[in-house]
Amino acid sequence: MGYIEDIRKLVGHRPLILVGAVVVMLDDKGRILLQQRKFPKESWGLPGGLMELGESTEDVARREVYEETRLTVEDLKLINVYSGPGQYSKAENGDEFYTVTVAYYTDKFHGKLVVDKTELNDCQFIDPNQLPEKVVGSHRKIIMDYLAMA
Fold it and tell me: Which DSSP string corresponds to 60-73?
């Protein structure tokens, strides 16, 4: 059982502040690694997830990328921190939360890509100018912000 599940037992569906990290990972052709998630409804998104107790945001980014793809990332560089009213979500089960998302980018990673089939349907490097239609809204913004600064 993770930290979030433990907190949910105490507070039910009330709004929580959750901290997480995502990574824009670029291959040698400038394509971005996107994951087709099972939830929410087969949308595409960046690798990443939520913080556990005692982790830094860099730790979260590295751990989540490894858990979801078996790739090891190095040399994380900050894109931005996203927070505020626009980061509100309500899950299908009624859980409410505001996320604080720290977004990083890197082109330094190694390992063999292995898709975690418990969370994902697919994982592909995709040209940022040909993003799928169904990209998580906040992740699309992060990608656009990265492209604007690159």
Answer: HHHHHHHHHH-PEE
Provide the token pair at 109. Answer: 């990673």
* Nearest-5° Cα angle at 61, 37 to 8: 70
Residue 85 to residue 23: CA distance in whole angstroms: 22
Number of residues assigned to the chain:
150
What distance lies between CA 31 and its chain's CA centroid? 17
- CATH numbers and ranges of domains, the chain: 3-149 (3.90.79.10)
pLDDT the model gives residue 137: 81
Q: What pLDDT digit, counting tens, does each position of 22-80 carry?
A: 999 999 999 999 999 887 677 899 999 999 999 999 999 999 999 999 999 999 999 99
DSSP string, 114-125: ---TTTEEEEEE
**pTM for this structure?**
0.92
